[in-house]
Design goal:
- The protein is an alpha/beta fold.
- It has two domains: about 325 residues, Adenylosuccinate Synthetase, subunit A, domain 1 (Adenylosuccinate Synthetase, Chain A, domain 1), CATH 3.40.440.10; about 100 residues, Adenylosuccinate Synthetase, subunit A, domain 2 (Orthogonal Bundle).
- The strands form five sheets. It has a ten-stranded mixed beta sheet, with helices on both faces.
- Helix 3 crosses helix 4 and helix 3 runs parallel beside helix 5.
- The radius of gyration is 22 Å and the shape is globular.
- The protein starts with a strand and ends with a helix.
- Bound molecules: inosinic acid.
- The site of inosinic acid (IMP) has 20 residues, from helix 4.
- The site of inosinic acid has 20 residues, from helix 4.
Length: about 450
């Protein structure tokens, strides 16, 4: 049997709680690799009451045994990486010998941030509501074949020429289009030379490392950032991030051969959120939305922006399941729904479930809801399926059934131990864990229980 090589990704618009789940699963993997995005991600992990927010370094780093990789598909702000390494060190986590940064990852430069900022605030421009980290402009330069890669930081002449030539062009664009003040090449060069030396010990050919590890039979977890619906191709374009967040991106963004993969796990909230602009068919506005936002503490971990909130959207989950070939689902933040008397779930779209390719098409969607009875009992911290209130179990079984994906794990709070693992589930099989005797529990979450 092949050793597990599993993708864990967000099945919605990001912020599904992947940080906690990756941290939890990481203990069972030799390697954890990030494959796209940059420090626009904010993966929150709470351990023993201490809150860690990781933006670039895979959450698995907090499990001492795993090796962590920042893959070639990530766009890297070296300053953000140095800051994150320092904040982990201050918390007693030493990443030396454990962290590997791809020599092929593209580098974010200060002009990526300033151009993005200027473009996002310019009148007449479509406002995406980005995280203002320079992510999109860095990927533009990558695809335009004018980017700077981590390995290039160590070629002094190339680095100097790249910065001065790119900056001449970027300054001209920023000035002409947005009236922005020019940046200074000399100070950028000096800063990046210093940063390059600080990250040098971590730089490696990570694709080669991962393929060699897989060949040796070592297990690998591929950690997605953002979520499937923010994918540059398959998401709610143009209100997306600039990378391939879906499972296909995991191989491109690490160099790991597709034939190594053994499965994909999606992470979804028991409801839905998104941050930034763009379509959101099940969005809940007004006081009820404020209430759900407050109960779920739905404020961005990177930008602090209030997240938009809404109900679980089964057509979108079916879409995410198909795009990513999801084998199992992890449902997070179940406890946020504890007080509700009725919980709407979008089971379809009037006129069909086809996912529209245009913003106008998204605007025309009319969700069809079923109302499920709430359980109105605390589920916070519940760790066993049988200890959930029957209506909460029915709710989860319903989500599994309308999504067509089996639920393998349920999160009932931010701590590692506030988690229900469904014995005998496909998720356990994917992790290479023995299948338990309690398969009956699993059957219910596969959506086989009677409809509530
Ligand atoms: P960018 O990735 O900063 O270019 O932002 C593009 C869109 O993706 C915006 O709507 C952001 O709010 C959203 N986004 C980026 N990163 C995350 C994330 O980690 N969680 C949720 N949304 C994100």
């Amino acid at each position: 049997m092949r050793s597990p090589c599993v993708i864990v990704l967000g099945a919605q618009w990001g912020d599904e709680g992947k940080g906690k789940i990756v941290d939890l699963l990481a203990g069972r993997f030799a390697w954890i690799a990030r494959y796209q995005g940059g420090h626009n991600a904010g993966h929150t992990v709470v351990i023993g009451g201490r809150r860690f927010i990781l933006q670039l370094i895979p959450c698995g780093i907090l499990r001492g045994a795993s090796k962590a990789v920042i893959g070639n598909g990530v766009v890297l702000d070296p300053q953000a990486l140095v800051d994150e390494i320092a904040s982990l060190a201050a918390a007693g986590v030493d990443v030396a010998g454990q962290l590997f940064v791809s020599n092929r990852a593209h580098v974010i430069l200060p002009y990526h941030r300033s151009i993005e900022h200027a473009a996002e605030s310019a009148p007449g421009r479509l406002r995406i509501g980005t995280t203002s980290r320079g992510i999109g402009p860095a990927y533009e330069d990558k695809m335009g074949r004018r980017g700077l890669r981590v390995a290039d930081l160590y070629d002094p002449a190339l680095l100097r020429d790249h910065i001065s030539e790119s900056l001449a062009e970027k300054n001209a664009i920023a000035q002409a289009l947005f009236g922005a003040a020019p940046l200074d090449a000399g100070s950028i060069l000096e800063t990046y030379q210093g940063l390059a030396e600080q990250i040098r010990p971590f730089v490696a050919d990570t694709g080669a490392l991962l393929n060699a590890a897989a060949a040796r039979g070592e297990s690998i977890l591929l950690e997605g950032a953002q979520g499937a619906l923010l994918d540059i191709d398959h998401g709610t374009y143009p209100f997306v991030t600039s990378s391939s967040t879906t499972a296909g991106g995991a191989c491109i963004g690490t160099g790991l051969a597709p034939t190594r993969l053994t499965g994909a796990i999606g992470v979804s909230k028991a409801y839905c959120t998104r941050v930034g602009g763009g379509p959101f068919p099940t969005e809940l506005a007004g006081a009820a939305g404020d209430d759900l936002r407050r109960r779920g503490n739905e404020f961005g971990s990177v930008t602090g922006r209030p997240r938009r909130v809404g109900w679980f959207d089964a057509p979108l989950m079916r879409y995410a399941a198909a795009l990513n070939g999801l084998d199992a689902l992890v449902v997070t933040k179940l406890d946020v729904l504890d007080e509700l008397a009725r919980i709407p779930v979008c089971v379809g779209y009037r006129g069909g479930d086809a996912i529209p390719p245009t913003v106008a098409g998204w605007g025309a969607i009319e969700p069809v809801y079923e109302q499920l009875p709430g359980w109105q009992t605390s589920t916070e911290g519940v760790t066993r399926w049988q200890d959930l209130p029957p209506r909460a179990r029915d709710y989860l079984a319903f989500l599994a059934r309308v999504s067509g994906v089996e639920i393998g794990m349920v999160s009932t709070g931010p701590e590692r131990d506030q988690t229900i693992t469904i014995a005998g589930s496909k998720l356990e099989q994917l992790l290479g864990a023995p299948t338990g005797a309690a398969a009956q529990e699993g059957a219910r979450v596969r959506g086989n229980s009677a409809r509530p």
